[in-house]
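Progress note, sequence design subtask.
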């Protein structure tokens, strides 16, 4: 079995007996577009074990990690964070499955070229392990909601917002009370 990026030549393993395993160490550059100004800044590194099973090949990834550049949702600064996937696994089937399931969650060995492409598997696992809310540090103070100053670097003299200023939907209570009392204006 040979590797070309995230595509593995599986011909050797396809013809082996059930239970045969082949292991690889991967260090590859990701060529995926993650959008939202998120970009990888290091190589993707992982251990992968392929095992022949009845009807397909089982792919098991361990200790996968890569560094990404994220934008902090509080202060807007770029920062680097490691995305780590402890373990993930997927089965690549030899033939199309007839079971009622998610057709987009079935993966297949390309029997014509005798290859397994794990790039989509890797992309999905990485996205699942992105931080839910990217923040540069737990102590990030963010930006001032009035003047936009970065509160991590300096303080501002805007002061604290008054309760009316922090409730943009407060007008709805006024409108509701006007409708309930019958004093609302009706447009013709």
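Output:
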């Amino acid at each position: 079995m040979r590797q070309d990026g995230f595509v593995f030549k599986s011909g050797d393993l396809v013809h082996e007996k059930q239970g045969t395993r082949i292991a690889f160490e991967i260090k590859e550059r990701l060529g995926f577009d993650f959008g939202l100004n998120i970009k990888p800044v290091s190589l993707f590194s992982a251990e992968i074990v392929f095992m022949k099973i009845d009807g397909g090949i089982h792919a098991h990834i361990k200790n996968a990690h890569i560094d990404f550049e994220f934008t902090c949702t509080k202060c807007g600064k770029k920062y680097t964070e490691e995305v780590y996937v402890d373990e993930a696994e997927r089965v690549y089937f030899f033939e199309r499955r007839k079971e009622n399931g998610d057709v987009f969650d079935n993966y297949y060995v390309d029997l014509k070229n005798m290859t397994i492409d794990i790039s989509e598997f890797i992309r999905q696992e990485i996205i699942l392990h992105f931080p839910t809310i990217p923040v540069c540090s737990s102590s990030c103070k963010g930006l001032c909601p009035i003047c936009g100053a970065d509160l991590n670097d300096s303080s501002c003299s805007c002061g604290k917002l008054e309760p009316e200023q922090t409730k943009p939907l407060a007008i709805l209570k006024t409108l509701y009370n006007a409708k309930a009392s019958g004093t609302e204006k009706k447009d013709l």
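Residues 2-128 form one domain. Work on this subtask will continue into the next period as scheduled.
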